[in-house]
Amino acid sequence: MLINKLFDTAIVGGGVAGTSLLFTLARYTDLKNLILFEKYDEVSQLNSNPKANSQTLHVGDIESNYTYEKAKIVKKNSSMVANYIQNFDEVGESGFKGDKMLLAVGEDEIAQLKSRYEVFKELYPYLELWDEEFLREFEPKLMEGRDEPVLAMGARGQITTVNYKNLSESFVQHALDTDKNVQMRYHEEVTKIERDVDGYYKITTDTTMFRAKSVVVNAGAYSLLFAHSMGYGKEYAILPIGGSFFFTKEKLLNAKVYTMQNPKLPFAAIHADPDCTKDWNTRFGPTAFALPKLERYHTLHLKDFMSALNIDKDVTKVYMSLFKDKTIRRYILRNVLEEIPLIGKKIFVKDARKVIPSLHVNDLTFATGYGGMRPQIIDKKKQELLLGEAKIVEDGVIFNMTPSPGATSSLAIALNDTLSLCKHLGATFESAKHESEIQSLRHTSLFEEILEESR
What we know:
Strand content: 25-35%
Helix content: 25-40%
Distance between the termini: 69 Å
């Protein structure tokens, strides 16, 4: 088998996480030789594909499942993607400006929303409270046939929607436009990563073999499988969660509408999103249910699946703990039923009516081919479900497992990995250039323009 030249860094996985790292390494470091492996024929064919996610730039302003401390982190991380979209002229290509809101239904939720607004308006000064009179004009479908009182916390003119596949393609193009030796190996599956006798890494694919001084694996659930194969991350296992969506037959909303989170549930509450792949038609979801797959709509390799589950008494305790809670148990059962043809949307429409009360079963169609997998990580030592990013960093090799909002945080994760690689390889990072292009917004924001016009 042919062994190709030595690369500074090899990246496994061509989703938004892998391509953002490629871009960051190529543009802001003095590393010369970079290679990215993607087993499919294009980037972002799995979770970063716009059909597999809600296309949301999660900022933390309308996501009521975020604490204030988590929102601060998410805001900082997501700003890098927002800045890239605006600084690199990707508005209308990768990212889209629009309106969004968090909708509270009923007196209890309204009280919670008002309290949240008083705290979060310091972090997000553009937030507004929208009463029923405003909503009747702004989003009339929200109010048609509604009996319960509502209140919304919203924002206008923000980057709300991101096509992460287009964003990935933009990252790749900007990496290729540098003077570095950047190789894109499409339709080439990495089958093995191992440490060489000289301290470098051998990357075996289904066609050949490569060597690299460092490796970063951004391959969803398979990141943990690669870590396990090298003896790392044995304390982690995967709970594979699938999600599906429903479309309305016509566009009913202009804004993204999120609903208040049930604090007992570990997954995001239902929301409605204008879909950039369907002429901005309204898409409802996601459902969330355990699914015996690692990649949605792709062949299951049973050996890989069982390895990822990594079942033992500690993992079993986590499963049992989840199912003991009546609220979670009912939620899981309901989401399973929503996947069943014919009856699924009859069940789902009851949840969707929290957003649009006048919605009928016949207004919905199952979003065939939409939805993805979110590999939730189980910490076996702590016997708990981790609902954020998980990372394993060893000597020159990094494994990223990034459930939502991993795409939103992709450039921030790439920055952290780049700094780690630079330290390991003795490379230079152009911090001033990165600060100017990614950490700062070079153009005046729409919010600033509105403030200026009002003076």
